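Hey, resending since the last one bounced:
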Amino acid sequence: MASPTYSPASLRCGLDALGQFDEVIDVRSPAEYADDHIPGALSAPVLDNQERALIGTIYAQESPFKATRLGAALVARHIADYLETLFADKPRNWRPLVYCWRGGKRSGAMTSWLNQIGWRARQLDGGYKTWRNHVLSGLSSWPEGLRCIILTGPTGSGKTRLLQSLGHVGAQTLDLEGLACHRGSLLGDLPECPQPSQRGFETALHEAIHALKPEQPVFVEAESRRIGRLSLPDALLQAMRAGHCVRVRADMPQRIAFLLQDYRHLFDAPDAFSQKLEQLVGLHSHKTIAGWQDMIAHDQRAELFLELVEQHYDPAYRRSSQTHYEGLTQAQDFIYDPTANDHGTQARALMTQLSVGTSLSTQEPA
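The structure tokens again:
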């Protein structure tokens, strides 16, 4: 049963009017906002997490009328608080766009009160669900026009660092691992950077793709369908797998030195590192994994990474990459040193090799 609305139809608008407002106000609960929200939206929940759960329980188990009456009182208290704090300094001509989950009671109440005060507030028709459908629609169609240049190469070859350097010197890039807060492998968790929700990731990806210029190629690092616990949309995967491939090559000593830099945080929690390796049981023998765990215990970092690369990551790369990327058999090789300090120079060399032109920045990456 659809929730009735408090604001009249004249106070509603669609996403096409998004740019006409001074601010976007998300009145959903903090948990809903944390899961995903319209980029830049201000969180002003009219029910907190516990209140929303309570109202839902009363509605389902006791009485819709009782739930509505109690909910209205809670919403009114929160709105009153925001009028004295969050919205206290808003100018007379402030124009906010307000949304909740489906464009129902929560955003309707806030919109009505703001308009009664004198602000020109509007309610997003359909609420967050309208935004979510917009994101899914964009992710299913926009990637078709992308001309992807795929950076392939084994673990430790520095593909992510090269991608970031390309962005610093003016190339168009799409950093999927940056958006996903994960390096994509078993050991890919980033310290102090939890992964977003699937919805949050898709919103960030939607915004990143929307900002790309379709007439220019975009550099993307080769990925499987999943980056950590997040999934890539099918249309983007198809565009990537049909892209032009560059095989990034680095010498083994450079790869190990790079891994020692980029994954040194793993040794800050050796027990957790050892437990992670337990997930490789089935791909490797208990004896092999026990040997790797012993290397962790004895802080044999270089020896451990060399064995992981030679026995696990390189064989896995050879198995998967040939299957996923159509252009890998015609890939151009690019010799790269991920440990060097001239990342901008190396990135420009790749662009010259590929005849990719942009208005290059003179700023060197940090």
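The chain has a mean pLDDT of 92.

Sorry for the duplicate.
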